[in-house]
Specification:
Elements: E1 4-8, H1 13-22, E2 29-31, H2 41-50, E3 53-56, H3 60-69, E4 76-79, E5 91-92, H4 101-107, E6 110-112, H5 116-130, E7 141-147, H6 152-160, E8 171-173, H7 183-190, E9 197-203, E10 209-216, H8 226-236, E11 243-245, H9 248-257, E12 279-286, E13 291-298, H10 302-316
Parallel strand pairs: 1-2, 1-3, 3-4, 4-6, 5-6, 7-9, 11-12
Antiparallel strand pairs: 7-10, 8-9, 10-13, 12-13
Helix pairs in contact: 1-10, 5-7, 5-8
Length: 325
């Protein structure tokens, strides 16, 4: 029997992207609520309990309300909000995170979809912490820039309104209070014992993201070389379809191309992977200075949101993991 999927919040940015990725598939069926009944608790509860799988694309409070309406033990839930990302009883929806995570998602009925920034950060950090190359208590900084679509309809409207009446910003740093909703999952799933100093920003482009972690290698316990970090990342993701680690020669080529500020380097364009579920990782190092810049490039609405949700949905429903991706 074809499994049914209800996207609660399908009119939002992430919901629309998930629906687009599922459109035309014959191995599942999307069910929708009558637009006039979107705020009707009884109508929502009926669909939430009738579907085989539910994807919640809602603000935190609304997601918690939706979960409270689900009484059927047969319904599988993916929540795209931050409400359950570090909650007990919920599985983190990052299949590539470690060797057991894919199996955990397959067997789970409650999966929390990772945040976009944490996806890049955890992908870079977790293998290195697990390998002992970065101590758990090391003070970590992460710098990142995202397309404005990550801010939802309000930020999209602000950036896409003509400059005379909309925002004038080309680049907008935020989170200046050093408090951010992603910090809990960044700490919890990367393996570090303290929250990182997180410096997020928004650029004047719709989709895409670069997440960067600079490190002083001389301050690490065993003073690893850049190649040690790259080899550890390559080993962690060597069989993954959606995560690629650039070779040493590729990183060297890009380093030389970007020794200065001139010249277009498509691989390091934050928009280069938009509308995909791919994530590319790079290790740019200087052996003499014993420093590296770890870089992740991904689509904040792809691997950072809707693509990840579809990947987990496929696993939970026993379908091919890459279907629709």
């Amino acid at each position: 029997m074809t499994p049914t999927v209800f996207i609660d919040g399908e009119a939002g940015t992430t919901g629309l992207q998930i629906r687009d990725r599922l459109a035309g598939r014959t191995d599942l069926q999307i069910v929708s609520i009558d637009p006039s009944k979107r705020k009707d608790p009884e109508a929502r509860a009926e669909l939430l309990n009738a579907a085989d799988a539910v994807v919640l694309c809602l603000p935190d409070a609304a997601s918690k309300e939706a979960v409270s309406l689900i009484t059927s033990s047969k319904v599988k839930v993916i929540d795209a909000s931050t409400a359950y990302r570090v909650a007990s009883g919920w599985t983190y929806g990052f299949p590539e995170m470690d060797a057991d995570q894919r199996a955990a998602i397959r067997s789970s009925s409650r999966v929390s979809n990772p945040g976009c920034y944490p996806t890049g950060f955890i992908a870079l950090m977790r293998p290195l912490v697990s390998a002992g190359l970065i101590p758990e208590d090391y003070p970590v900084t992460v710098n990142a820039i995202s397309g404005y679509s990550g801010g939802g309809k309000g930020l999209i409207e602000e950036f896409e309104t003509p400059p005379t009446s909309g925002t004038q910003d080309a680049f907008r740093p935020y989170g200046l209070t050093l408090v951010h909703k992603h910090l809990a999952e960044m700490q919890s799933y990367s393996g570090i014992s303290h929250p990182p100093v997180f410096a997020p920003s928004v650029g004047r482009f719709a989709q895409g993201m670069i997440v960067e972690v600079p490190l002083h290698l001389w301050a690490l316990n065993d003073k690893p070389k850049p190649g040690d970090l790259r080899d550890s990342l390559a080993k962690a993701y060597d069989r993954e379809a959606f995560i690629s680690v650039a070779s040493a020669s590729e990183c060297e080529r890009l380093q030389q191309a970007r020794a200065g500020a001139g010249g277009y380097v498509p691989e390091l364009d934050p928009e280069s992977l938009k509308n995909t579920n791919q994530m590319n990782l790079y290790v740019f190092g200087n052996v003499e200075r014993q420093q590296v810049r770890l870089v992740a490039v991904l689509d904040n609405l792809g691997k950072g949101a809707s693509g990840a949700a579809v990947q987990s949905l496929n696993l939970m429903l026993g379908l091919p993991e890459s279907e629709g991706l």
